[in-house]
Amino acid sequence: MVAWSVGRLDLLKKLLVDPRVSKDPRQHWRAFAAGEVKQDWPLFSWVGVNNMFTAYGNDHRRLRRLVSQAFTARRIAALQPRVEEFTRALVDGLAATPAGATADVREGFAYPLPIQVICDLFGVPEGELRHRLRRIVDGVFDTSLTPQEALANFHEMYACLADLLTLKRAEPGDDMTSLLISTRDEDDGTGLQEDELIDTLLLVIGAGHETTVNLIDNAIHALLTHPGQLALVRSGQASWNDVIEEALRYRAPIAHLPLRYAVEDIELDGVTIPRGDAILANYAGAGLDRGFHGETAGEFDVLRAEKEHLAFGHGVHFCLGAPLARLEAAIALPALFDRFPDMKLAVPADQLEPVGGFISNGHKRLPVRLHG
């Protein structure tokens, strides 16, 4: 498959609000309409689903209006005590690492915190269902899967989320899954259809989790590889909010977001994207755009005056979970660095491996020595 990657910040912002740009492959992607995109394609779970992520126009407005009722400021704020509780437990777990041993703070901290929060939010019970979800979400973001692996993951994903819906219909609770099941549109009284329900759960659980994992991972990595910047935070010259926003700019948690489609020919800075072609939003490139951020765009600088980024998107598809991701990072990062003030990377930075694929932007492992 061929797609146009747009990574210049000003151009990408224009595209993300352009009504000639769609996220509905059924209507506007030539290859999809021609039957060239199969279920065993690793990106199928991004483009072949039916939720607000792939909706266009009135369909998108309807779905976003329904889903946004599960992401009110009150509901997000109410999660703070649970985020703090989870964070304390994870930091205590890291503190039990034997002296001289290394700890993987991606696996043992950045990863479990968001999955616990998102599963709590959606009422996913402890046990096998949570383990299945974790395995499936990993597969959704790994674009290096073989066609057979991608197809198996796709079917397992639907089976797992269908099980969650069955459980919540039988035993509804004060959680977002139960809320989405019962939500009705004020205009016509209709709610989410079954496929929309499952695909919406996939979108929010998957994207909401992975974005936060990589945000925390990348912020830890940036501070450990830029001790002068960490000193600015500890001295009070910079805030943890400065760290979070600069980390989002410097290493966007989602490097490339698939896909958008040209509804008609679009001329962009002298280049024409033909009608029906696919477009990749290159969020990582936009954050490092020298045309906007200057020659220091590639440097991590918590005191940077202009930290504008597109890490959570822009326009009508701006991420509903952005406040939750920021809340988790704002609690997790100071808790970790306050508890382990002498923490250091356990391997040279150039030996760290990125996660698989071109969507997720983080590390496979982030080994540290907690006590220097």
TrEMBL record:
<keyword id="KW-0560">Oxidoreductase</keyword>
<keyword id="KW-0479">Metal-binding</keyword>
<dbReference type="GO" id="GO:0005506">
    <property type="term" value="F:iron ion binding"/>
</dbReference>
<keyword id="KW-0349">Heme</keyword>
<dbReference type="GO" id="GO:0020037">
    <property type="term" value="F:heme binding"/>
</dbReference>
<dbReference type="InterPro" id="IPR001128">
    <property type="entry name" value="Cyt_P450"/>
</dbReference>
<dbReference type="InterPro" id="IPR036396">
    <property type="entry name" value="Cyt_P450_sf"/>
</dbReference>
<dbReference type="GO" id="GO:0004497">
    <property type="term" value="F:monooxygenase activity"/>
</dbReference>
<dbReference type="Pfam" id="PF00067">
    <property type="entry name" value="p450"/>
</dbReference>
<keyword id="KW-0503">Monooxygenase</keyword>
<dbReference type="GO" id="GO:0016705">
    <property type="term" value="F:oxidoreductase activity, acting on paired donors, with incorporation or reduction of molecular oxygen"/>
</dbReference>
<protein>
    <submittedName>
        <fullName>Cytochrome P450</fullName>
    </submittedName>
</protein>
<dbReference type="InterPro" id="IPR017972">
    <property type="entry name" value="Cyt_P450_CS"/>
</dbReference>
<dbReference type="InterPro" id="IPR002397">
    <property type="entry name" value="Cyt_P450_B"/>
</dbReference>
<keyword id="KW-0408">Iron</keyword>
<comment type="similarity">
    <text>Belongs to the cytochrome P450 family.</text>
</comment>
